[in-house]
Predict the structure.
Amino acid sequence: MATTNGALAFLVEALAVELAPLRVNAVSPGIIDSGAWDRLGKDKAAFLRGVADRNPARRTGTPDDVVRAVLYAIGNPFVTGTVLHVDGGARLV
């Protein structure tokens, strides 16, 4: 996953330069309680609690967190070449 995320970051920057004045941004979500983890069944709550305990925000993400990041990227015309990490700071620890 690190390789993919690194490639994404470089791609966003390169495309922002190549396609200017079009803006290019990306949103990189962390663990989001979107229903994708429901297949864990009774283990889901423990998994999400463990994720929350390990990241600086001390919670898991919600679909609304991702939507807010997308709306920010769309709404701010001076943001380009940026990857918005919506992961509660998990990539920092």
Remarks:
- The chain has a mean pLDDT of 96.
- The first helix runs from residue 2 to 18.
- The CA atoms of residues 54 and 69 lie 22 Å apart.
- The radius of gyration is 15 Å.
